[in-house]
Amino acid sequence: MTKKPALITGISELAPQKNPAGQRTLALLAQAARLAIEDAALQKRDIDGLLVTPPSEDSAFMWPAQVAEYLGLAPAFLNMVELGGASAAGAVARAAMLVERGICENCLCLSGGVWDSQVFNTLQGKMSVMSQAEIDYELPYLPMGFNTGYALIARRHMQLYGTTPEQMAKIAVDQRFNALQNPLALFNQAPLTIEEVLQSPLITDPLHLLEIVRPCSGAAAAVVSRSKSEANTHTAVSVLGWGEACTHNSIVYAPEITISPVKQSARRAFAMAGLKPADIELLSLYDCYPITVIITLEDAGFCAKGEGGCFVADNDLTYRGDFPCNTHGGQLSMGQASFAGGMSHIIEVVRQLRGEAGERQVARNRLAFVNGNGGVMSTESSLILGRAEDE
Question: Which of 69, 109, 84 lies closest to 342, judged by CA?
Fold first, then answer.
């Protein structure tokens, strides 16, 4: 008997905010949880699994229990998934395992919180997200944080493969086009041009301001279920495959900085789903920086190694294009909620597969690939999602 895949039956997403206006992380998560449970046509009592990503402003001590208590849940299974930007995809993968094994019927995956502006902007903030090895052996040389790591990756890719600033900037431009049709996006007021991206301030060579993700406050949630409620009128979305991989924590120990562990995580996800990159019609790729998208396209198998720059230049990545990618605007235009905004990539794919994306709805919406990226391309979590076959 063929195993029935887990279903994403409910979703929600709050509009990202630059200023949280006094709200706290638990309050944001509660809003997102309520909306996702309602979207799944369930009651709070139906939720028996809880997976949360780490908070940025509250104590993480027994964080899943804090969230469960605040929401009034009594889950049979709860956990915190801490994979950086891969956390949301990792949470959905774990939820799928829980419901497929019969441990939970309906698992709530929560991500987001209030952005603490001190994180990454002060020495103490930097140290709070660094390993002891990084503090002992890297901090004395005054690293600038994630910008520095991704700048090194981008420059190395340019040196090895001839990738150009214009090619990287085009990703931000195409994603801004998508964001213009997304009322939730943080930056949806005006289009971008490649020239505007490259004329924005150079922050860490070769990264410009408009190529760097904007942390913000927000929250999103997904309900992963064994089956869909009879009252649920949405098209269910199947979790067909998933895969994870990690090759390092600090970029200092990366085997090769232009090769991401998505090479392994995507391969595992495609193998589980029994599919290949050519089958995919929609992509939602973690985009803290454009170079992340380029390397993910290469290592996940959508183009050959070193051809990512030419690939994004030659293909239309907008929702109207031949290769739609990050149709919600990606994090570059949507904003990155709390430590990592990877849940927004999952929410957008579910909307698209349901046929509920409005003006930015893609024409082909049967199968999608989602990828979450943690750290400096150190931990990857990949998902293959598709419309449920019985609908």
Answer: 84
pLDDT in tens, the chain (391 residues): 457 899 999 999 999 998 877 889 999 999 999 999 999 999 999 999 999 998 876 678 899 999 999 999 999 999 999 999 999 999 999 999 999 999 999 999 999 999 876 666 677 767 777 778 778 877 777 766 789 899 999 999 999 999 999 999 999 999 999 999 999 999 999 999 999 999 999 999 999 999 999 989 999 999 999 999 999 999 999 999 999 999 998 888 899 999 999 999 999 999 999 999 999 999 999 999 999 999 999 999 999 999 999 999 999 999 999 999 999 999 999 999 887 679 999 999 999 999 999 999 999 999 999 999 999 999 999 999 999 865 4
DSSP conformation letters of 41-104: T--GGG--EEEEPPPSSS--TTHHHHHHHHHT---SEEEE---GGGHHHHHHHHHHHHHHTTS-
Q: Are 207 and 144 within 8 A, CB to CB?
A: no
Q: Report the b/e string of 350-386 with b at 16+ CB within 10 A.
A: bbbbbeebeebbbeebebbbbbbbbbbbbbbbbbbbb
Concatenating the DSSP letter of every residue in 106-139 gives: EEEEEEEE---TTTTTSHHHHHHTS-HHHHHHTG
CATH number, domain of 221, equals 3.40.47.10
In a domain, 124, yes or no: no
Domain of 32 in residue numbering reads as 7-117+214-387
Query: 3-class DSSP state for residue 220?
Result: strand
Tally of structural domains, the chain: 1
146-161 and 290-299 helices cross at what angle (nearest 10)?
A: 60
Q: With respect to residue 235, please indicate whether it lies within any of the assigned structural domains.
A: yes
pTM, 2 dp: 0.95
Distance in angstroms (rounded) separating the CA atoms of residues 105 and 98: 8
Query: Is 205 inside a domain boundary?
Result: no
